[in-house]
Amino acid sequence: MLEGVRSRLGAVLGEGSDPKLEEELPYGAMMITLMAASGVTPYESFKRLRSVDALERFREEGEEIVRQVEVLGSDPLTAMEKRAAEARSRAYADFLEGYVSSVKSGGSVVNYLTSKLRNIFDARADSARHAVERLETLVEAYMIMLIVIFCFYILSTVTSSTSMGVVGSSFPDTSGFIYPLILFVIPLFSLLFMYMANNIRPSTLRGVRKPYVLGLAPGAAFAAFIATTALLPQLSFVLELADPALIVTVGLVAISIPPAVTYLRIARRNLSAENAMPSFLRDVTEARRTGLSPEKSIVHAAARRGYGPFTRDLERIVNQIEWGVSLRKIYRDLKEWIKSWPVVIDFFILVETIEIGGGDADTLSLLAEFSEKTQTIEKGLRGMLRPYVILPFVWSILMAFTVTFTVHTMTQVQLPFMEREILVSSSTLVVEAGIVFHCWLSGFFIGKVSEGSFASGFKYAAMLAVTAYATLYLSQRFVADLFRGLML
Questions:
Q1: What does the pLDDT look like over 391-443, one tens digit per residue?
Q2: What does pTM read for this prediction?
Q3: Burial of 286 (C-beta count, 10 Å sphere; 0-12/13-18/19+)
Q4: Which residues are CB-contacts of 56 (< 8 A; sequence separation ≥ 6)?
Q5: CA torsion, ordered 314, 320, 326, 327, to nearest 10 deg
Q6: Are 183 and 430 in contact (CB under 8 A)?
Q7: Which of 136, 250, 364, 392 gives a 20 to 30 Å CA spacing to 468?
Q8: Please, what are the domains in the chain?
Q9: What is the rounded average pLDDT of the residues 65-79?
Q10: Enclosing H/E stretch for 335
């Protein structure tokens, strides 16, 4: 079973491909197609792509093709054929090879590029569905890992309690494995699964650093507090006055709340922009068909209500247009306050289409059509992954209850009352704190899986830490009441 999971995870990582290039391909192909519809050759489009910071891999491809043409003396078609032969992305190679073939055969380049672009978006939709399947495999493997590790934990607790409570017991004392298991092994596995999720589920938000920065100061302060109380015997009374699991819970929640609030504000603004951008582009297209200039079309489209929080950003754009600010400058400003990658790329292509082709209505219609497809794909992906948010709460409750029930059951059965109290207080406190920390850490894994951004994990991490501690607290009292009732 584990071998099957591992083989599927190998396919998940996409060995031998160029995931970054394939992720950018729909947008790069869209720009090349729209430029071709405006009368610009794909080679000239690649030259312009060198200035597009948002498409890093296509910018590199543009620089390499231009280098081969202008430095090495190759003709554009030969340079594109060479890049197609060297490309690690089969879809990108097919795109270049088909274009070269279309030019050599004398066919319609625009028709080919438009048709190929539709195929690329269809393939992207299929890839999104396959990504959901791979993420399902990843979550299943994560749950299997937790089950195996906690089975080992239960076995270790049973054998340790037996060897301590029974004279001449043949069971080895495995209590020394429990702390490394809870405090190091599980977090390391969580980090590994986060890495794999990062390869599968890219975020539409780029350059979002503020939530992480806000978590640095409280995180450093909490780490210093834990290290100080652990290393200085004079401060050991702090751990005696309060439950370590409670201290860890409060500290982790304090770390998570400011970044979570900040991320929610950023995500709300950018998600509104993603949802509104296709409608906005469609409105610009229809306004352009009436004969309005491109700038007037943007102003007219922005006047319509129903864009949500994105309306404020459109009002800012309209004010800049009315003050005579160029669309190129408006685009550079937009990148500063909007972090959604699809929105930034769509607006950049809109500016390019207007500056090069005069904002032809048919060309703008293509842009609106493919922007709508992008939004549909992303919304479908989020909708299919939303149910997985429930799973970490389930395994957090099970983990916390398993630890409490196992330890208290074995100590009640095996040891005298005084020894039982000593063992419970000394052997479970650190483990319970470790459980809270791991549940907090798994919030970032599920945040990446469900929303595509680790920053979204701050809100899940805080809720999972509280859930884990609440389960520990309630299960301890449940077990105590259970055994008290049995002893009566």
A1: 888 888 888 887 777 766 665 555 444 444 444 445 567 777 888 888 899 89
A2: 0.80
A3: middle
A4: 20, 24
A5: 0
A6: yes
A7: 136
A8: 2-107 (no CATH), 132-265+385-487 (no CATH), 270-383 (1.20.81)
A9: 86
A10: helix 327-337
